Amino acid sequence: xxxxxxxxxxxxxxxxxxxxxxxxxxxxxxxxxxxxxNVPPAQSGANDRNGTTLMRVYAMxxxxxxxxxxxxxxxxxxxxxxxxxxxxxCPQNAVEYDWTTGIVAQIPVRCLGCRYCMVACxxxxxxxxxxxxxxxxGMEATLNPDISTRSRxxxxxxxxxxxxxxxxxxxxVHEDREMCEDEYQPACVEACPVxxxxxxxxxxxxxxxxxxxxxxxxxxxxxxxxxxxxxxYLSSQKWVHDMARSGVPGKEATNG
Amino acid sequence: MDKTAISRGLQRAPLGQFLLWLGxxxxxxxxxxxxxxxxxxxxxxxxxxxxxxAFGAWIxxxxxxxxxxxxxxxxGFLLYILKRKELRAVINSAVTxxxxxxxxAVVILMVDVGQPLRAWFTFWHPNVHSMLTxxxxxxxxxxxxxxxxxxPILLKNRKLRxxxxxxxxxxxxxxxxxxxxxxxxxxxxxxxGSLGGLYGVLNGRPFVYRESFGIWPTTFFLFIVSAAxxxxxxxxxxxxITSKVTxxxxxxxxxxxxxxxxxxxxxxxxxxFKTIDTLVWISMTAPGMGVHPDSxxxxxxxxxxxxxxxxxxxxxxxMAIYMTKRLRxxxxxxVTAAVLTCLGIVVNRYxxxxxxxxxxxxxxxxxxSYMPSWQETGAFLMVIAYGMIVYSLSFRYANLFPLERELxxx
Lengths: 256, 410
What we know:
- The complex is a heterodimer.
- By secondary structure, chain A is of the alpha+beta class.
- Chain A has one domain (29-135, 143-244): Alpha-Beta Plaits (2-Layer Sandwich), CATH 3.30.70.20.
- Chain A has 8 helices and 11 strands.
- In chain A, a hairpin with a 6-residue loop joins strand 4 (95-97) and strand 5.
- The longest helix of chain A has 13 residues, at 162-174.
- By secondary structure, chain B is mainly alpha-helical.
- Chain B has one domain (49-361): Formate dehydrogenase/DMSO reductase fold.
- In chain B, a hairpin with a 2-residue loop joins strand 1 (212-213) and strand 2 (216-217).
- Chains A and B meet through strand 2, helix 3, helix 4, strand 6 and strand 11 of A and helix 6, helix 7 and strand 3 of B.
């Protein structure tokens, strides 16, 4: 059965656009994401490949030398695919596509920690908890009470700050009214100082995100893989579009 | 005590010499168990796996030993279903090796997963679309079948045969051996295939994604065929090594040749299927996903060489040796072909598990390299040491090669 047939009538489908022409690579989105989602501070021995990062800003260059060198920053997070490759591979249904929101949910308490989903994801959007989550003394007080911490040995990823939607809905119910779509915004969207990230309901043709998707500058990374991501990047630069179409090997990075 | 536990008519090394042989393996096992304990107690950050290299040496080990252990199901299939009676000479050894490989793989998997206590979740609420679910179910069931096949071999021990109920149990087990062989073949075909399917379904990884036949990608079928080819070769190799180490004739030349010929025939199919599969992938599958196959190897030409070696030196060459009667009649050529075939499996599983994760999928990605940590290596070696110890004990106290006694007399 296709996604469209299973989708409840009138249900939103949340999506995001990220304007690479605006992004300065400041990393505020990464920090906001970590704070909002109770991501523990990096442990001693952690590096850029085994730390927990649900959103990561990469630098992408056109691999030319001065004066032709160009670079953009690419905030990369879960692309909330319509056909998520991580969902079908999980042996115990710890990844679920939520029909009522279009969000690909990760359920840490079901996760076996086999990491097959991480292998399946072409966007490297998933992180594994290689360490027990610990916070320096006193810092526990800063934890967000609306989201649980995850135990060691489980995979995790961005879920568009889904708990914020729950809170917005609860607030609307309490005030006896319908929830407005703009009441629900992920932490990274709020934190971006240049307004490069736009979030909203793709089912609403008048939403900013729908208009962003329709722009000629919009593209998705490695689109031909057929995962149908719900994050579109915007750029007016042709080389960015050209590079986004497929992966090109870069220099070698070592571990250990 | 020790002498009375050894089957009548079989000559075995003195106990002291045997313990001296076991000593280093036991030391390695203890070290490996300590490494596994560290990973379980303190977390997988002690390994050199990471968010990008989410599968490492252990998954490579799993896929390799399970393919090499395929000799158990395939020899059982040939003996009990296709009635290749000459293989009775190696079936006990094949079952023991199968049991070692599968139990070793399950043990290392339990260290590899982040939450081993949740392993039962897969049985309780399985995702029927996941290849890993199929692998989990089939490997668990098949390990059970292998245990049932291995128990009668142990119960044939001279001491254990003195217990009447064991004797009756062993006799009854033999009556159902055909059913077990059939069940084992069915389960084994599926999980060997599912292990290949595990990678072939990854549409996010154009390097391994393959076209499908029905619901299965071609890697599903390639894994079955490659495991069926490698299984008899590994039995041939281990039998020859055991024979050399113990300085005993264990099977006749006819058995070696038969194993070689079976491997050779299956290798013909494998080399053919693998070549077609690679050509389809190069010309259709990868370009269809927006990737030119050349780009995979642009910054690491050695990767291409490994692909070619797999099909030529480790595929076509052993096939040619096995299928040439003059070469097949010489044990040195048979052993050479067996070594090459087993190395072919190692290379194939390495390409799938390690190269797949090393290669970039995004334009700003880097080509990654990965070197396992000492804790990972230790746990890896634990499985090897465990296998050596169980096989050595089985060889000493059970009758792994039924022809040995007769050949010794001659």
